[in-house]
Design a protein that fits this description.
- This protein is mainly α.
- It is built from seven helices and four strands; from the N terminus they run E-H-H-H-H-E-E-E-H-H-H.
- It has a two-stranded parallel ribbon.
- It is globular.
- The relative contact order is 0.19.
Length: 156
C-alpha cells in the first residue's frame, strides 16, 4: 500500500457485527461440534463437549481473561485509539439487506452471479437464541459485551 502512495483513507472499511447473545449460542455449538480450529483437541474443547450452555457461559465469565477472543467486544477490532474506524457496518441479523445497502453505497453493481449470500445458522440448526438463556446467563453476556450492546443498541 505504501509503495502505491495510498493511505487508510483511500479504502472503505466494512465489518460485520452480531447480536452478542446470539453470537454466544453460535460459538457454543461451533466449539461443541469441533468446528473451531483454535480450540480443537484442547481441554476447553473437551469441557464444552461435556457442558451445557449455562456452564459454557459461566466458564467464559469466570475463567477466561479479558483478552480472550470469546470475551472481546467487536468494538475492540473496530476502533483505533478509541476512535471508531468502520465506514460500513453489516448486522448479521440483517445480512442480505445490509450487504445490498453497502453495495449500493459503494456503487458496486450487484450481479447475481458474483454476490452470494451465505448466512448459515449454527451448524445447520434453526434456533431462537433467547431460548438458551436464563436470567443469570443473559446478565453475564450483557456484562461481558456491554460496550457492543450499548454502542450498537442491541437488546435481548
Amino acid at each position: 500500500v505504501e509503495s502505491l502512495n495510498l493511505s487508510e483513507h483511500d479504502f472503505k472499511k466494512i465489518s460485520i457485527i452480531r447480536n452478542p447473545w446470539e453470537r454466544m449460542v453460535s460459538w457454543f455449538f461451533f466449539i461443541k461440534n469441533r468446528k473451531n480450529p483454535y480450540v480443537k483437541d484442547t481441554d476447553f474443547q473437551k469441557f464444552v463437549e461435556k457442558s451445557n450452555f449455562d456452564q459454557f457461559i459461566k466458564f467464559i465469565f469466570i475463567n477466561l481473561d479479558d483478552k480472550s477472543l470469546l470475551k472481546r467486544p467487536y468494538l475492540f477490532y473496530m476502533c483505533d485509539k478509541n476512535i471508531f474506524k468502520i465506514d460500513y457496518v453489516i448486522r448479521y441479523e440483517n445480512y442480505e439487506s445490509d450487504i445490498d445497502r453497502v453495495l449500493t453505497l459503494l456503487k458496486v453493481r450487484k450481479n447475481n452471479n458474483n454476490v452470494k449470500y451465505s448466512k448459515k445458522r449454527t451448524c445447520g440448526l434453526k434456533y431462537n437464541y433467547r431460548d438458551f438463556y436464563n436470567k443469570e446467563t443473559k446478565s453475564i453476556v450483557e456484562n461481558i459485551y456491554c460496550e457492543d450492546i450499548n454502542f450498537f443498541k442491541y437488546s435481548f
